[in-house]
Inverse folding.
């Protein structure tokens, strides 16, 4: 079992819809969780991080963390074609700086 | 404020050679991390430098090394290159070691032939 798993996609959603991206992790000692967006040919950029159970909202983005079920998700409301990218989930264990990344989910938002 | 810069952007090397990549962090940032990104393995952490000291190290062979200078600029060296070292090498800077927010540079695309 990989430490951080994501469905590679592509996930295709129409413009204006909610895109839901999921990530599961295997280590129960994981404490901080990150979502990055990476456009084709570009470097990753941090969208948000979360470390407490529940939801964290930032604009159109909401991260949801459920440590009991060992998953973290990213919801993108009112999806736009400019949201089309690969979304990387990263996890850090408690006491460690070293992040483990998932392979990413490709999101396509079509007009 | 200028972002993270990496040089060179593209590099072609032959097996057995060595290579040095450079990263200049955002002004005021003291931590620099290096990552390797490949289609097969995804994004993997190499190491992190803070205050000229390696603070954390990923699971890579000793052929991969780095250093950081007093101005926080960092270099990464790969010796005895192998075909499998072909990858996008990214550096990321953050204010302090362990902070959540890190900013990636554009990367250096290394091709080993």
């Amino acid at each position: 079992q990989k430490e951080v798993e994501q469905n590679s996609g592509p996930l295709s959603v129409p413009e204006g819809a909610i895109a839901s991206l999921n990530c599961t992790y295997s280590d129960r000692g994981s404490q901080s969780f990150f979502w990055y967006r990476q456009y084709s040919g570009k470097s990753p950029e941090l969208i948000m991080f979360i470390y407490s159970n529940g939801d964290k909202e930032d604009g159109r983005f909401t991260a949801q963390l459920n440590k009991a079920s060992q998953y973290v998700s990213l919801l993108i409301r009112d999806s736009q074609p400019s949201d089309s990218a690969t979304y990387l989930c990263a996890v850090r264990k408690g006491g460690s700086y070293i992040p483990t990344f998932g392979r990413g989910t490709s999101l396509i938002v079509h007009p | 404020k200028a972002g993270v810069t990496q040089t060179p952007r593209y590099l072609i090397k032959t097996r057995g050679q060595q290579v040095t990549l450079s990263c200049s962090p955002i002004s005021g940032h003291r931590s620099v991390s290096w990552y390797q990104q490949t289609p097969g393995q995804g994004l993997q952490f190499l190491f992190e430098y803070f205050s000229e000291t390696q603070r954390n190290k990923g699971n890579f062979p000793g052929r991969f090394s780095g250093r950081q200078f007093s101005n926080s600029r960092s270099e990464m060296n790969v010796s005895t290159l192998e075909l499998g070292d072909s990858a996008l090498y990214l550096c990321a800077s953050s204010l302090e070691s362990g902070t959540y927010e890190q900013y990636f540079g554009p990367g250096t695309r290394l091709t080993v032939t």
User: Anything to note?
Assistant: Chain B touches chain A through 19 residues (CB under 8 Å). The mean pLDDT of chain B is 95. The first strand of chain B starts at residue 5 and ends at 7.
